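Review box. Two proteins, two foldings.
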Amino acid sequence: MKRRAFNSLAAAAGIALMTAWLPSTAAEPLKVGFVYVGPIGDAGWTYAHDQGRVALEKAFGDKVKTTFVENVPEGADAERVIRKLATEGNKVIFTTSFGYMNPTEKVAKAFPDIVFAHATGYKTAKNLGTYETKFYEGAYLLGIVAGKMSKSNTLGFVGSFPIPEVVRNINSFTLGAQSVNPNIKTKVVWVNTWYDPAKERQAAETLIAQGADVLCQNTDSPATLQVAQEKGVYAFGWDSDMAKFAPKAHLTANTNNWAPYYIDTVKSVLAGSWKSGEVRGGLKEGMVVMSPLNSVVPAEAKKLFEEKKKAIADGKFHPFQGPVVDQAGATKVAAGSVMPLDKLLSIDFYVKGVEGSIPK
C-alpha cells in the first residue's frame, strides 16, 4: 500500500510539472495579469493595451479572468506589483512598458511556473518572452503625410525618453517625410515621461513657436493634438485613434493593435504549447493599424500613403532601406541594403534632417 501510494504521488508530481502553465482544473479560468505604466484613460499606449485585454476577455469568455494595475512607475515599485500578481495566482503576466524589463526578469526567475511577457524589451528566459510592434512602419507613413502637408518644411516631434524605440520612430518619421519633401527638417523636444499632458502641451507649444507646422509624438496623451488644433497646425494620433480630441488637426494615427498577440499567447498557454521568444508584428500582422486619413489630406498624398503601406505590408519596402545617412553625413545603410535588425533595435543616432543631439 505504501509503495502504491508513493507511486501515485510521484505520478501526480510529474503531471503537475508537465502542466505548470495550464489552469489547475478545466473549471477554473486562466488568470491573466497586466501591468500598465499609465492610466487606461490616457487615450494612447495604456489605452491600446487595455483594449487588447478587453478583446482577450471577449475571445475566451469564462476561460480566462484578467486583472490589471495601472499607473505603475518604472522601477522598484514595478517589481512589487509584478510579484503581487504572481502570488495572486496569475499564470500569465504581461508587463507593458520598457522600464519594466529588469523587474520582470527578476520576478520571472522567482516564479518559473508562470509565463511572463514584456513589451519592447530584449531580455528573455525560459518563462519570459518579449513582444513589440514595428511602430516605425507606421511612423514612416505619418512622415509621408507630414512631408506633403508641411508649408514650413519643419516638423516637430514630442519625444518621451531617448531610448532606441523612440529614436527609431523619430528617424522613420523623418525619412518618410523626406521621401516626398527632401527639404524637411525635424525638431525634437524631450519630455522624459510617457504620460504628462502638461509637459506634452508645453513641448508642442515650443515646437510650434520654432516653426513646426506638423507635429508627431511618442507620448501617450492627446495634448499635442489639442495644442495643434488650437494653434491651427496639424498633428497625428499615437498608439490609438485620437481624432475625437482634435478632429481638425488629426491627420491620421499610428495605432497599436495588441489583441492578436494577447489572444495568440493565451491560446498557446491554454494549449500547453507556449514557448519563450521575441514577437514583433507590424502592418502585415495587423499589430500596427493606420486610422482613416483626414479629408484635408490631398489625393496625391493619400495615394502615396496607401501605396507605401501596401509595399511595407508585402515586404517590398522597409523604412530603413538604404541609403540612410546620419547627421554627420556618414552612410549608415548603403543603397540596396536594409538596416540589420540588431542595429535597428539599438539605433543610437539621428538621421540627416533631425536637429539637435540625442540626450545621454
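Next protein.
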Amino acid sequence: MHLMDLKKGDKAMIVNIDTKNQALKKRLYSFGVMPGEELSIKRCSLGRRTMEIKIDTTLIALRAEEASIIQVKPII
C-alpha cells in the first residue's frame, strides 16, 4: 500500500521509500520521512494533488508524485 491510498485521519507506518532518486530520498529523510516512522494524514487537497502528513510534531506537505513512492503499513 502507498501513502496516496490513505485518507484523512488514517495512520500508518512507513515501510519503504521506493525511489532511485537519492536526492529526493535524502530530502525526505531530512524531514523525518523514513522507514519505521509512524505518520498520520492531516489533509488532502482537492484532486489529491498534495497531502499533509504529521510525523511526531512535524507537519509535511507532499506532492502526489512523492507520496506515491512511499510504501506504508496501516495502523489500526
